[in-house]
Amino acid sequence: MLTEMLLPLAWVATLTAFIFSLLLYLKALMAPASALAPGGNSGNPVYDFFLGRELNPRFGSFDCKYFCELRPGLIGWVLINLALLVQEAELRGSPSLAMWLVNGFQLLYVGDALWHEEAVLTTMDITHDGFGFMLAFGDLAWVPFTYSLQAQFLLYHPQPLELPTASVICLVNAVGYYIFRGANSQKNTFRKNPSDPSVAGLETISTATGRQLLVSGWWGMVRHPNYLGDLIMALAWSLPCGVSHLLPYFYLLYFTALLVHREARDEQQCLQKYGLAWREYCRRVPYRIVPYIY
Ligand code: NDP
Asked: What are residue 206's DSSP bridge partners?
């Protein structure tokens, strides 16, 4: 049974991430200074091992971070979810509506990430953070085994879900996805080609670096509209599990903390990069993630 194997598998994934990061740290000792990440290059071995000394470690044309960000963890998460759905069908005759929703929403999220895989190239993980234990553990162990907690919960705690409630939850997920995809695609298109017809009409602020900042469209609503969409989806993934237990809301709570911290880190980096232009952007778009609230 997969459910009995989840804990041992999670241990093996953690051990693999540890050994892998150790090899990456040793490899990074021989890397040229130009290949090192700004954050993981402190000289303190434990700190650098954790944060990642090299920015984008590669073996030949194989990019370790790009691969790990998208393939093993995300696909593993979907496979665990599917196995739990099949196990529920064996146990109760058919998968519950709640299990279908959780599987469907999370399959959409992973399918979207793989479909738009080149968009990961403009994210902070790729452009700024080194590849060390933090990211390797996150990609290989944390994502598949904790992001599947809702499906794991549903296997042991079946939830009655009526069609009207399910429809409202689908609507919440659709709104979150619309904002998330719209914001990420808009920024990605703009960064690749600011003259693309879909973004050419948007208002921008010029910066001293020559790059521009969007100040209308999704990025004129709040400073991180993609995080807002992601959080709305996170809520929709928990709602099918009912409100009797905190466990299915673990992802929503953890993810809120992660994104608030991530947003603060990104603000710091953007302030350093863009200086006065960033301050002007913050003046024009005062809210960080949630309009009129935060
Ligand atoms: P973003 O994709 O939001 O990238 C931030 C960068 O975007 C900034 O550093 C800046 O870089 C650029 N930027 C910021 N404001 C503007 C603007 N107004 N106009 C143009 N460019 C701007 O960051 P993340 O990498 O954190 O997130 C990517 C996606 O991944 C998000 O949807 C997030 O929710 C998701 N995510 C999901 C996780 C999960 O576990 N499910 C974990 C982490 C993230 P520059 O100017 O240099 O281009």
From this structure: 212
Return the ligand 1 atom nearest residue 262 CA: 26
Residue 191 near ligand 1, beta carbon < 6 Å = yes
Note the pLDDT tens digit of each residue in 241-285: 999 999 999 999 999 999 999 999 999 999 999 999 999 999 999
Torsion sign across C-alpha atoms 44, 129, 275, 291: negative
In 3D, which of 57, 55, 63 has the Cα closest to residue 24? 57
Q: Is the Cβ atom of 180 under 6 angstroms away from ligand 1? A: yes
Ligand 1 centre from 145 Cα, in Å?
Answer: 24
Answer yes or no: pTM beyond 0.85: yes
Query: Which residues are CB-neighbours of 192 under 8 A, at least 6 positions away?
Result: none
Q: Is the CB of 185 under 6 A from ligand 1?
A: no
**How far is the centre of ligand 1, averaged over its atoms, from the C-alpha of 262 (Å)?**
9
Catalogue the long-range contacts made by 85-88 (C-beta closer than 8 Å, 24 or more residues apart). Answer: 85/151, 87/1, 87/2, 87/3, 87/155, 88/154, 88/155, 88/158
Token output for 222? 């709040």
User: 123 CA distance to ligand 1 centroid (A)?
Assistant: 5
